[in-house]
Amino acid sequence: MNVEIISVGTELLLGNILNTDAQYISRRLSDIGLTVYFQTVVGDNKERLKKAFKTAYERADIIITSGGLGPTNDDLTKETGAEYFNKKLVLDEKSLDAIKEYFKSLNRKIGEGNKKQAYFPEDAIIIPNGNGTAPGCIIEDGGKVLINLPGPPSELIPMFENGVMPYLTKYQDGVIFSKVLRVCGIGESFVAEKIKDILDKQTNPTVAPYAKEGEVTLRITAKGKDEEEAKRLIVPVEKEIRNILGDYVYGVGETTIEEVVSNMLIDKKLTLSVAESCTGGMIASRFINVSGASNFFIEGDVTYSNEAKVRRLGVKEETLKKFGAVSDKTAYEMAEGIARAAHTDIGLSTTGIAGPEGGTIEKPVGLVYIGLYFKGEITVKELHLKGNRQRVRNEATIEAIDMLRRKLINAAAIK
Amino acid sequence: MNVEIISVGTELLLGNILNTDAQYISRRLSDIGLTVYFQTVVGDNKERLKKAFKTAYERADIIITSGGLGPTNDDLTKETGAEYFNKKLVLDEKSLDAIKEYFKSLNRKIGEGNKKQAYFPEDAIIIPNGNGTAPGCIIEDGGKVLINLPGPPSELIPMFENGVMPYLTKYQDGVIFSKVLRVCGIGESFVAEKIKDILDKQTNPTVAPYAKEGEVTLRITAKGKDEEEAKRLIVPVEKEIRNILGDYVYGVGETTIEEVVSNMLIDKKLTLSVAESCTGGMIASRFINVSGASNFFIEGDVTYSNEAKVRRLGVKEETLKKFGAVSDKTAYEMAEGIARAAHTDIGLSTTGIAGPEGGTIEKPVGLVYIGLYFKGEITVKELHLKGNRQRVRNEATIEAIDMLRRKLINAAAIK
To answer: Which domains does chain A have, with CATH numbers?
Structure first.
C-alpha cells in the first residue's frame, strides 16, 4: 500500500516556509511500514490541485494533504477534494459547535470564514482539531482514500497522531518499529566514528544518526511481522550502542534533556534555582515547560546587567572589576548566590559572550562559563561554542542542563 | 516561463531530512520572477524519476533537480536525464582533474565512484562545484531545459548563485518583489475579514496572509519590468492595508516584535525588567536574543514558586491567599515589584495556567494575566489562550511584548 503526500500552499512554492509537514508525515508513515514514492507541493489553485490528485492516484491509493483548510477564500483543499470525488459539501453541526466554542473561549466572535471550516464532503470521517479551528477529514471512495489535514504543525501533528495513525493501521503491511536514542555532549561525527562498526554492518535494524540543535539522535529502525518481533530485533543493537556511548545517551524517544533532569530532581527531592546571563531565561524556560516544574523549580534570575548580578546574587563588585562579568569567578559567585538567595539545593549559572558584538581576543564570542552549586560544592565549566547568537545561547543552555544531569547521575538521594 | 523543482532522494521520502533545497530554489526563482507551480520529491529510482520528468515537462519548460549526483550506485539523476533526452554520457577531463585535485587537497585518493561524477550527458553545460566532488550540468533540448544540482546545501547554494542564476536571466520575464508586513494581536481570519476587499480584488500586487506562532504575516508581491516598478506597485496597497490595520502592523520583513520593542526602548531611553511565572523565562530570552539588549534589559525574575514571588517581588502573602497566584492582583503586584526592585522604568509580569494540569472551572488552562508597570502606572490584561503548554506560553509571551509595544507607541520620550 503506498501513500502520496500533497502539500498545498503558494507560500511553499514561493519558498516562504519550509515543508516540515511533509517530513513529519513521511517519517511517521515509514515508521508503520507504509511506502511513500512521491511528495508533491502545489499552490492554492483548484485546477492544479485537482491535476495533482489525478496524477497521484495513478500511482498511489492514499493521498494525505496538508494545508488549505483555513478560513480564507484561497483555502481550497476540501472543496477540491469534494469536486474530485463528486461529493457535496455538507455542514457538520458538531464541528461548527466546536469552532464556536473555540472562539467563545477566546472571548471573540466567530469569523464569517470560519463557518466554512465546518463543511465537509458528504460521508467524510471528520478528525477534530484540538488546537485550532480547522478539523481534518478522510474521504473513502472506490478504493481510494483522501486525508485532508491543516497546515500548521501544531495542529497537524496531534491530529496525525490521534486521528490518522489509528486509521492507517488497517493498511499496514508488516510493521516498522523505531526507537530513538538521544545523545548529548558529543558531536554527530564523533558518534558516527564511535559506532562505525554498527553503522557499516546495518541491515535490519538500521541505525540513522541525526544532529539537531546541540544534540544527536540515533534512530534504530527494525522491520518485523509484528511490533513484538521488531522490538526484539532492536534490543541487541541498542545494547551495543549503549555500551559504546555510555552516559552520553541521556534518554529515548521524544524525551527532552530537561525532562530527564526534572525527573531526577523530583526523584531525589532536590530543588533548583537558576541565574542566567547570556542564556537569559532559556534554561528557566526549558525547565518550566516541563509540566510539574513547580515541584523543584523555585526561582530563576536573568541577571543580564552587572547591577542585577550584584544586587540579586551578591556577586562581588570586585570580582566583576577584576575578572569581568564573563569569567569563571563570576559564574562561581552567581551559582552560589542564586542557591543561597533562593534556598535551593542546586544553583545553576551561565555567563558568556553570545555575540555578534562584545568579543575580544582574550574573550572571544562563544566563550561561556557554567557554574554549578550542588549542596555546598561549586564547579565551573568553560565552553568555547561556535555559531550565531541564538546558537551559542542554545548550546550553552543544553550544556548547562547536561552538566547538572551528569552531577545528578552520581549524586545519592538526599533529604 | 515556469520552472518545476524535483528533489531526488529516498532520505526525503523517509522523512530523514528536511527539503531545504526546494525552499531555497523556490525563493530565488520567485526573486527573479520565474514561476514555480509544482515541487516534487522522488526517491533514488530510475523509472520513477523518469516518470517525474515526463509529468513535469507536461506543465513546465525548465526542471531543476537537486540530489542524486553522488558517487554511489543509487545516485542516478544525471544517468536518468541522459536517458530521458537520449544522450550518451561522456567524460569531461576538466571535471575529472578538478575532482582529483579536490581529493589531493584532502590528502586522500580519489574513490572509484567519484570518477563517474566527471561524466555528463553530451553537449551539457557543466557547472563546477567549488565545495564538493559533484559538478552540476544543464541540458538544453527541444525547448526544454534540465538543470542538475547536487543535494548538499553547502554545494547547491553557491552553484545555484554562481552557475544557475546567471544562466536563468535569459528566461526572466520581469521581476517579482515581495514585502512582508508583520501583524500582531489579531487572528488570521480577522485580518482576512478586515482586508477582504483588498484580498478579493488582488491581481498585481497579490496579498497573501499567513498565520505563524501567534502572529500573522501579509506578503504583498508585485510583478514589474524591474524592481523599481514592482516596488512602486506595492506602495498604495501597503498604505491601504496599514490604514485598515493600524498599529496591528508592528513591522516589516524579518523583524521580530522583540526587535521592534527593543528599538523603541533604546530610542526612548527606557529600562525594562521582567517577572515571569507561566512564561518562565521566555520573555527575557526573547529580549536577550536581541544584540544590544544590555542597553535596556536590567533584570528578569522567573518567580515560578509563590515563595519567590513574595521574597523577590514583594507580592503580598495575603494577595496570594485571597486571590491566588494566577490573578489580576498578583500580576499587578509582580509588575510593580520587579520594577521597584530593579529600579526600572518598566516592569512586565506574567502569571497563568499553562496546563496541561492545574486548571479549574473558575481558572481554566489558558488563563493568563499580564501586568505592565510603566513609570508608576499599572495595567493588567486578562487572556484566554488555547493549545498545549508550549503554545499557551508562547502566545502569552507575544501578547505581553505586544502590550508593551502598544504602551510605547503612546508614550512620549522620557528619561
So the answer is: 2-171 (3.40.980.10), 175-252 (3.30.70.2860), 257-410 (3.90.950.20)
